[in-house]
Amino acid sequence: MASKARTIASTRSSDIWWGDRTGLAEAVRKVWVVTGLTLRYLLGTRRIIAMALLSAVPLILAVGLAAARVASFDVLQLFQAVMVPLFLQVVLIFVTLVNATSLIREEIDDNTLPFLLTRPISKPAIATYKYLGYLAAVLILLVPPLVVAYGVTEAYGGLSFTTDLDVLGGFLLVTVLGSAAYGGLFLFISVLVRKPLAVGLLIGFVWESIVGSIPGDVPKLSVIHYLRTILKGTITVSPLAGYRTDLSVATAVGILIAFSIAMVILTIAVFQQMEFRQKA
Amino acid sequence: MTGVVEAAGISKWYGEVLGLNGFSASFGPGITGLVGPNGAGKSTLFKLLIGQLHPDQGTLRLLGENPWNNVPVKRRLGYCPEHNTLYGWLTGQQFVEALLRLDGMPRSQAEKAAEDALKLVGLSSAAQRPTRTYSRGMRQRAKLAQALAHRPEILILDEPLSGADPLARVQILRTISEFAKAGGHVLMSTHVLYEIERVTNNIVLINNGKAIASGDIRSIRALIDEHPHAVRLETPQPRQLAQALARMDHIVSLEIPEDEALLVRTRKPDAFYRELPAIVADTRLEVRGLESPDDSLDAVFRYLVG
């Protein structure tokens, strides 16, 4: 009797163990497939040409200035004078906007979403894995040109790669956190409205541009305020030395991470209750 | 409730537009055809069944379960949507394989199952081509392959023959029949009664969001035969095809509405669909696709609903 009980117990624990392992392997497969499909869509279709060109603006600028042999061209001028308005306020916002709004909305518009929704994967998982795929895609687009542009600039000035690492580090940090925050925001907008690009353009290029000049605490209602705070605090001779902020870098980083997570959770909550009426 | 699908008083509104209006029906095992004109509510019912829509009223059960946001029941169903958009940047093999991996299959198993499914629908030779290069018939078959590759208990097929060429139709109908013979359940919609007749006698007629008749197809057919049935053929040689089809004694009229289209009206649609593949093969004329406008079926529905 005891032996039989032991056998049953052993079998059960074995089932649970194998069940868990199978469940984990299956979950990993689903992450891999949805993230992989998202990456292939964002990086493997024709949209990549425009996105890659836009993402390469820092590099094009650095190489262009070097080729033109601009005498006073150095990392401070490129990264501090030009990159804040150009990269932070144009390239980053546009690349994240176009990519994040396409994740779910384009599948709805193209009528391909049923292929995912009729598989044993939950809507929250689809939204989360797509967001992870988006993050990987935009970082693949944005980070290499930034690093190479920095390298070209330092080399042109006869400096070693490590001379101004604080500048590179600051921009890499805002690229990662900005991609996460804007991506979450634009993804959320894409499940709320049918034309997310128009709403995103208004937020990205109107609100985020003017908010810095509004007095009081209003700038805290933008993503760019926290990105500027991070740049001001991480770069020794900051291009934003005169920027008004009462936040520390750690607080700004924490707020952006929390904001990104909140946006993804809100996206999941809306997506979970969304109905999909087939387009005519 | 014991049927494969049980619907009791289902209503669904899209704003002020009514998609389903107190739809009640029970679909048993085997193949069931859901027949109705465009806008009758077929796609709405299917979207409710796959959990993409939530009913505003009534109760719906698929394989005994509520399908809304029900992840486990999706292991048991295969769905073929009406629209022909696939992930065009994937090959047929990658498309089916990726979806199979979402069912939890390891890569090697998914690869094999995808190959088998594509072979079953006659797409092996195009498996390594991007799906954006597929014809409408090939897309229909690719959709069918992904729907049945994981061996579901039930296939839900929304207009699976729409736009398919004659050979693709034969292949698709054969695949559906074999799936049902192996014990699977099929729920298939069409607005062409004669297409479904080849695979089942069990139909449900739907119009204006309501089930208006169900049961044996033969009694419905008798009504429909009184009305000329329209078929639109896509062909680069409409005149030559018209000459070839004119030999059929049941043809009522032949029109060329566009440069690459032929509109045929026949009093014997079953004979027309039976004889067409042979005529196309004999004359070697190209037929890229065929569709049946609703007109003739609408007349029957108007008759049935008074």
Structure, explained:
The complex is a heterodimer of chains A (280) and B (306). Chain A has 280 residues and is an all-alpha fold. Chain A has one domain (33-273). Chain A is built from 10 helices and no strands. In chain A, helix 4 packs antiparallel against helix 6 (123-156) and helix 9 runs antiparallel to helix 10. The mean pLDDT of chain B is 88. In chain B, a hairpin with a 2-residue loop joins strand 8 and strand 9 (210-216). With 306 residues, chain B is an alpha/beta fold. Chain B is globular, with a radius of gyration of 19 Å. In chain B, the strands form 3 sheets. Chain B has a 6-stranded mixed β-sheet, sandwiched between helices. In chain B, 49% of the residues are buried. Chain B has helices at residues 42-49, 92-102, 107-120, 136-148, 166-181, 193-197, 217-224, 238-245, 269-283, 295-304; strands at residues 5-14, 17-27, 31-35, 57-62, 77-80, 154-158, 185-190, 202-207, 210-216, 229-234, 251-255, 261-266, 289-291. Chain B folds into 2 domains: 5-221, 3-Layer(aba) Sandwich (Rossmann fold); 228-304, 2-Layer Sandwich (Alpha-Beta Plaits), CATH 3.30.70. The longest helix of chain B has 16 residues, at 166-181. Chain B contains 10 helices and 13 strands. Chain B is 35% helix and 26% strand. At the A-B interface, helix 1 and helix 5 of A face strand 5 and helix 2 of B.
